[in-house]
Fold this sequence. Notes:
By secondary structure, this protein is mainly alpha-helical.
Amino acid sequence: MEREPRPTRLTRAESRAQTREDILNTAKLLFAQEGFRGASLEAIALQAGYSKGAVYSNFESKEDLFVAVVETYQHESLASALPLFEGAPSNAELVDRLANWADKLAQNGIWGFLVLEYARHVGHGSPLNERQSSLIRQNWHVVGEKLRVMFRDDMPVTSQALGALVFELTHAPLSGLVTTLTVGGLVRVTFEGLILAYGRPESKNNQARGA
C-alpha cells in the first residue's frame, strides 16, 4: 500500500500570504454585513481564525484593511470588464455586454455605500483616500482607452471620463434603491447617445478593436 505524500509545509512567505488573504476575505464579508464602522478588527480576526495581532502584522489599521479590501474589489471589477472588449463584432454588441456587466455588478451595490461611509470617516486629503482614488482613476483610464476607439477624435470626452461613466454608473449607491431603470439601462442610454453623436464607422472601429 502506497503511503500518501506528506503535505508540503508552507514557507514563511506563503503562510503570511495565506493569512493576509484569509483576513481580506473575512473583512470583505464583515464590512458588507456591518458597514465600515460596525465591523471591528476584533470581530474580523476572530471570524478569520487569527489573533488581532495577526491582523496588525498585515495591516496598519482598520482603515488600511478597508482600503486593501476595496483595492481587491476594484481589481476584480476591472478583470471582469476587460474580456467584454474581446471580439465584440459591433458597437451595439459591446454596449450590450457593458450593460449586462453593469447590471450584474450593481447587484452588489453595498460597496458604493461603504466607500462613501469610509470617505466621510477619513476625510479629504487622507493618504489612504488618495491611494483608493488613484486605483479608481487607473481603472477609469484602462476601460476608457478600450472604449475610446469607438469614437471620432473630435469627441470632447477623455478616455478617463468614458471609463468613469461606466464605473460610476455601475457603482452608484442609490441606483440599487430604484427598480424602474436599471444601471445597464443607464449605460445603454449614455453610450448609444455618444455613439450616435461621435461614433466612428463600424469597419474602422472593428479594426481598432482587433475584431
